[in-house]
Design goal:
The protein has 158 residues and is an alpha+beta fold. Helices cover 18% and strands 41% of the residues. Strand 2 and strand 3 (47-48) form a beta hairpin.
């Protein structure tokens, strides 16, 4: 019995050390947290999208996560700055930067990274519209089973 008690103490110390190490790693890694906006509605070309979710960060940015394509495509929206970024990387499960579920989303980079839709790198006129509780922009997508790029209008009301 004495040996079992010592083993439990030893395991307890190791568990405490492991817990402290993980918490320090979490504090240093500082993933970017987004909370789901349950009342937000996303439409693509006027049709409601059931596979798209909208999340808000504590800094006021919005994350549009479209689960319909390749495990997820992120768009980061800065309503106060009138800026929309096409996020870098998709789902962590596919080697990307984001982990999204029904309640929250995490980005493993501190501030989210991406390319502005108004950048010359993207050959599209995003026609950005920002109003209180509403954001609209145009994105380029590929159709299923094709490599042809088409544009579609995205509208988010929150």
């Amino acid at each position: 019995m004495y040996k079992l008690t010592n083993d439990r103490r030893k395991w307890g110390r190791w568990a405490l050390l492991a817990g402290m190490s993980l918490s320090m790693f979490a504090l240093l890694a500082r993933p970017y947290l987004w909370i789901r906006l349950p009342g937000a509605v996303v439409t693509f070309d006027g049709k409601t999208a059931s596979l798209a979710a909208v999340y808000r960060s504590r800094h006021g940015q919005l994350l549009l996560w479209n689960r319909a394509s390749r495990g997820g495509d992120p768009f980061i929206i800065y309503p106060s700055r009138g800026l929309v970024l096409e996020g870098n990387g998709g789902s962590i499960l596919d080697g990307g930067n984001y982990l999204a579920n029904a309640l929250f989303a995490l980005n493993r980079n501190g501030p989210p990274l991406g390319v502005s839709l108004t950048s010359p790198k993207l050959d599209i006129d995003p026609h950005l519209i920002f109003r209180p509780g509403c954001v609209e922009f145009t994105e380029e997508v590929t159709t299923a089973g094709s490599s042809h790029w088409t544009t579609r209008r995205v509208r988010i009301t929150f």
